[in-house]
Amino acid sequence: MTFNLRRAFPYILMALGLSAPVCAAFALRGQVPEWLLAIMAAACVLEWFPLHLPGGRRFSASVFCYVLAADQYGFSAASAAILVGVATSVIRTGSRRFTRAHLRRLLFSLGAHQLALAPTYALLERVPFLPCLFRTAIAAVVFEVVRLIADALFLEAKGRFRSVLDALRSLHPVTLLIPASLASLLSAPQMEWPVVLPTAALFASFAWLSRRQAQLVDECESARQTYRVIADHSADLVLIAESSGEIVFASPGFLSARGVTADALIGCSVLDLVAPEDFAMFDEWLTPEGADGRDRELAMEIGGARVDVELRITPIETHSATRYVIQARDISARLRKTADRVREERLEALGQLAASIAHEFRNPLTTVMGFVQLFRDQLEELAPGAYAAMWGELERIKDVTDALMVLAKPEDVPHVACDLGAIAETAAAVCQPLALERGVKLACGPLEPAQVLGHPGQLRQMFVSLLRNAIEAAAEAQGDVSLSVTATEVGAIATIQHAGEGIPTSLSARPGEPFYDTSERGTGLELMVAHRIALEHGGNLEVKRTTQPRKTVLRLRFPQGNG
């Protein structure tokens, strides 16, 4: 087709559309046959209730009315039937208000039908020898092919001829044979109503079933889209697996947050997602007996990360085999919250116990220390060095008692602006004798002035506790300890480093756990006290371990404070 003809084609269709009313007027002049009126009425009904075909396409059986009118009453009568049928179709699919766009669409549709009617009418005139059933069916196919091609050329859409082939492919033989049989029976010289009526009922049933089937398909598609949206945006993982464990569906919502695509899991075994320690238990659940729909907890490994999930496995029976729907919900945050609550309850209970023990120890300890000081000279005469050893151990008991008091209910002390660097320097001076005694070098610097808001006494106790713990750990490894304070734009950072094994990587998140320490001789109270004081001052304590060289780094962060 040349370019000029392609541009002129819409105007040709419009001219052919204008010819339809003229032909209809010519056919309806004078006395109109009753059967022609019946055919026109049937065309309106069939246009209003089209047949629903697979793929969402619709097919109007009114084409057989056009063929029947052309075969019985000629070209003009068929044009009259086309005029009322196309007008009904435009009214059915349009809005209540008739606009110029509707008129233009009506003329183009009439033109396509008139163009299809010409070869159809010629075919009917040339093959009168064929049985009426086959002649009607072939004429209907020719009419529909020409009309579809005309619509495709008018729309100028990509893949238009492929769409024509798809539309013809969707025409099931039953779609043609039932209405063609009814049309051939109606066109017979002597109609046999015992045959015509059952055929008409069969055609009506077929039309109703096609409409009902289309409704069910739409409902299924709507449900599928709804479930797809839920699966795509759900925070839970939804898997469908065969009885062998092969994954056939995976919801992308849960996986995309972990950098894994759903396609990467399709075809894999669901057992590959289960942590090794829970493999045997999950293997028992993925059975008809074990898949009881109850919630269970296990660990999964997705995208190289371990995820604690709450799992529910439900069996579904299909026509071929049993499948399993696996719903997994990430409960890592809930477990962390539960662990934090348990930890807080433990710390609260420990604080109450610590306060009780500290009060019970403080009074006898004060008495013992007083008498030891009173009999200092006698002790030196009886056993030289005994006083220093006794006094050192009593001081250690006093430090433990003071640490237990910190774990009790925090005191309501006012916070003032203080220099964290100066406080750290004072704490280092207090711990210097212990470092000399243990043979550990305590290096300080830089200790920059850094203003924070807090209680100087508690901050000093925090540094003393951490430095003592570091010195004990460094003495075991025959290493050194360093202390530094750095001022930042948002606060201050204090860093304590010491040589040795320190805290294992798996336990680095437990600086506040009771009775946990980085040295063999410690009780764990030093870190616990320091962690509690840091939290009360709006800061936090981080513990990290390095292997090259082997050392432990304790980093304290505090917000900036002004007096």
List the helices and strands and how they pair.
Blueprint: H1 3-27, H2 34-48, E1 51-52, E2 58-59, H3 62-73, H4 75-93, H5 100-126, H6 132-155, H7 160-169, H8 173-186, H9 193-233, E3 237-242, E4 247-250, H10 252-256, H11 279-285, E5 295-302, E6 305-317, E7 322-330, H12 332-374, H13 376-382, H14 386-407, E8 416-419, H15 420-438, E9 442-447, E10 451-454, H16 456-477, E11 481-487, E12 491-499, H17 525-536, E13 540-546, E14 551-559
Parallel strand pairs: 9-11
Antiparallel strand pairs: 1-2, 3-4, 3-7, 5-6, 6-7, 8-10, 11-12, 12-14, 13-14
Query: Can you tell me the CATH class of the largest domain?
Result: Mainly Alpha
* Termini gap: 89 Å
Helix content: 55-70%
Unreliable segments of 5+ consecutive residues: 515-520
Question: How many distinct beta strands?
Answer: 14
Strand order of the largest sheet: 4-3-7-6-5
- CATH topology label of the largest domain: Arp2/3 complex 21 kDa subunit ARPC3
Q: Which strand-content bin applies to the residues?
A: 15-25%
Count of separate DSSP helical elements: 17
Q: Describe it for me?
A:
This protein has helices at 3-27, 34-48, 62-73, 75-93, 100-126, 132-155, 160-169, 173-186, 193-233, 252-256, 279-285, 332-374, 376-382, 386-407, 420-438, 456-477, 525-536, and strands at 51-52, 58-59, 237-242, 247-250, 295-302, 305-317, 322-330, 416-419, 442-447, 451-454, 481-487, 491-499, 540-546, 551-559. α1 (3-27) packs across α4, α2 runs parallel beside α4 and α3 packs across α5 (100-126). The chain is α+β, with helices and mostly antiparallel strands. It has a five-stranded antiparallel sheet. The chain has four domains: 3-220, Arp2/3 complex 21 kDa subunit ARPC3 (Orthogonal Bundle), CATH 1.10.1760; 234-330, PAS domain (Beta-Lactamase, 2-Layer Sandwich), CATH 3.30.450; 336-409, Helix Hairpins, CATH 1.10.287; 411-563, Heat Shock Protein 90, CATH 3.30.565.10. It contains 17 helices and 14 strands. Mean pLDDT is 81; it is low at 515-520. β6 (305-317) and β7 (322-330) form a beta hairpin. The chain is 58% helix and 16% strand.
